[in-house]
Write a structure and sequence with these properties.
Length: 311
């Protein structure tokens, strides 16, 4: 029997940047640009530090094929870890209960197949939108705000007891669909909540304001029963996801006891057009899917020993 699963998305490593001090004034456009530049530098630095931690991601989600109606909410819990700077998500529970043996065997086999692909140098291609993906970078736009967006300060607010500046960022030109993922940021409008003392991004909201953001994601098939020592999982085609304007993603971070900022909660909602193609080139019927996902993060732990995947 064959089935298809979605590959968990993964994105690349960020550059190490120094910690910068606070901004003195924030009244004109230049000061707003400087505020965002410093906050983004701090964000990039802390995202690298995140690689040294493991934690749980509890996702309450629902998706629906438009013509079939909504599915019931499902609660999935994943253990998030970073090995050699690369993120892994291990499915550990469904509806707050441990996975049954057959699902656990599949998860072990899936991770083994993922590991073998990485050893061979052809791991997953970054894919998925917003909260549906997890990697060293947790937002689409933050690395591009100071050179590809118009920035406007909208006032102050309080988030999780912290006084923050609220900044709106709008792309300075339309995206070019023919370019690589570096142009993805221009599909979004972003709002930032920046701590006025530490210049850390406490919260970010990204809204898709252009139609046509398209991402490709491999499909996989497997044979039953699965065997974790020799998992029979292989690529069986490609899904092409085209997202529509109005998709939104919100993420909020927290500062844990040792001073590192890690994700605290996130929310995403949107609609996508899905076109699937089998490995032999056969095209399957196109459909639209709605999704709604709310994730909370907990159980933060620091790695004690460096872990490395060996042949």
């Amino acid at each position: 029997m064959l089935g298809v699963v979605k590959r968990k998305p993964i994105l690349g490593l960020l550059l190490l940047v120094p910690l910068l001090g606070p901004v003195a004034t924030r009244k004109d456009g230049a000061d707003t640009n400087d505020l965002v530049r410093r906050a983004v530098a701090n964000y990039q630095r802390r995202e690298l530090l995140r690689n040294d931690y493991t934690y749980l991601a509890r996702m309450r989600w629902v998706d629906s094929v438009v013509r079939r109606g909504p599915r019931p909410h499902i609660i999935d819990t994943y253990e998030v870890m970073f090995l050699e700077g690369t993120p892994y998500m291990k499915h550990v529970a469904r509806d707050d209960r441990p996975l049954p043996p057959d699902m656990q065997r599949f998860e072990d086999a899936r991770l083994e197949a993922e590991t073998k692909a990485r050893r061979a140098g052809h791991g997953t291609t970054p894919a998925g939108l917003l909260g549906h993906r997890l990697g060293p970078k947790t937002a689409w736009t933050l690395d591009h705000l100071t050179d590809e967006f118009f920035l406007r300060r909208k006032g102050t607010d309080v988030v999780a007891g912290r006084r923050v500046d609220v900044i709106e960022a709008v792309p300075n030109k339309k995206p070019d669909p023919s370019t690589s993922s570096q142009d993805y940021a221009r599909y979004f409008k972003t709002t930032l909540w920046i701590d006025v003392v530490e210049l850390e991004i406490v919260k970010a909201r990204e809204e898709l304001i252009e139609d046509g953001l398209t991402l490709n994601q491999p499909q996989f098939s497997w044979s039953i029963p699965l065997n974790s020592e020799n998992p029979q999982i292989s690529e069986s085609g490609m899904s092409r996801m085209t997202y529509l304007r109005g998709n939104v993603f919100i993420i909020q971070w927290t500062k844990i006891a040792d001073g590192v900022w890690l994700p605290q909660k996130s929310y995403s909602k949107g609609k996508a057009r899905v076109a699937r193609q089998m490995a032999d080139g056969q095209a399957l019927p196109i459909f639209f899917i709605n999704s709604d996902a709310e994730t909370t993060y907990s159980g933060y732990k620091k790695f004690v020993v460096k872990t490395r995947i060996t042949p």
